[in-house]
Amino acid sequence: MNKNTKILLSEREMPRQWYNIVADMPNKPSPPLDPATRKPISPEALAAVFPMELIRQEMSAERYIDIPDEVLSLYKTFRPSPMHRALNLEKALGTKSRIYYKYEGGNYSGSHKANTAIAQAYYNKKEGIRRITTETGAGQWGSAMSFACNHFGLELLVFMVNVSFQQKPGRKIMMNTYNAKVVPSPSTMTAVGRQILEKYPDSPGSLGIAISEAMEIAVQDPYTKYSLGSVLNHVSLHQTIIGQEALLQMEKTGDYPDVIIGCFGGGSNFSGISFPFIRENIVNGKKTRFVAVEPSSCPKLTKGRFMYDFGDSAGMTPLLPMYTLGHNFIPEKIHAGGLRYHGAGVLVSQLLKDGFVEAKAKMQRECFEAGVFFARNEGILPAPESNYAIAAALDEARQADIEGTSRVILFNLSGHGHMDVTSYERFFADNLPDHEMTQEEVDKFIAGTGLQD
Ligand SMILES: *Cc1c(COP(=O)(O)O)cnc(C)c1O
Known about the structure:
The protein is of the alpha/beta class and 453 residues long.
């Protein structure tokens, strides 16, 4: 077996296509519905918010989709991303398992979000769009989009969830540096925002609200479109560059993963690393397990309901068939900002329902402990979101040791935490409470949607 702890691909080996798992899913996902008619929505109805090529990808069943040259050339400034064998972590754990991670924090944005930001900005530019509106929670998506838009000559307006806007001024400055305009959400710029502020002047905001605001601005102007950083099929598609590379990198190690792990917000980084390997299960009889890890305070996969729900809080999006906590969900202020979304991507939802993936919820203190342990042994300070994947990877290794076996474990290290050090500070000060949402609370939010069967 290869003893290198850093597994690299050359630029020449970088995959030139994204992988669309719809082509191989035994049960295809149900279509998004028009909320007014409850009929499948037409591509034209989505054209007010998205460029046609992204709509085409959203609805595509084509197995492989070519990555445009303009996107590839920007990918090449930071891809292929490295895979590491976590030898020092293994030693510290005293485990017989072999732990690998794919590191997506090494690009300008510090997370995997750059993979889709570049593609989305490119397709908008190509269709003559001048301005994009979007939301951001913790700020990674806004940062990823800011640079991508500036690169392709587009303006960007970012609605940043108010609690993050207050907690993470560094992210706002970063977005401004990349030439984007950032407003705290809820804002007075939109009818949705004004309505919420009237009722709840101290609203901490939510991703659902920020999405509603960004969409409201986009639909008013033919040269402005809206862009989403997770959840949608085309976003997961763009992230499959991660798993496509990881397949080639695992091949170089001589190992093959028994289990693949990703933290879960809307599902894009988990989809990105998993989908090409799920194809190996479906088509080539591999037996890898796939574990999505969410916070106990936002447990849509483990306690939510599979049903048609809106992607935003005001009900402006089509109805999507997904695991959800209800679009009216307001999350607790836990620090893994990127994991606070109420819904799960449609593709992952269907795969979870059909038993291709597993889901697990974790408390935040255990995850920060795992993140600190990882940082001290591997030298990378992880994003708070990524800590959920790390904690689950440690569980897998410990469980194998208890069983007297070993596992090949691969997890996605979705980003670095350099902009999130204050949450580590709070962890060290013992000031980071655990919070678990009860089934009763979840059911209340779901009843509040008025959409359950
Ligand atoms: C946004 C984000 C996540 C969660 O989003 P997914 O779409 O579920 O991947 C996880 N990790 C990092 C570093 C992020 O920025």
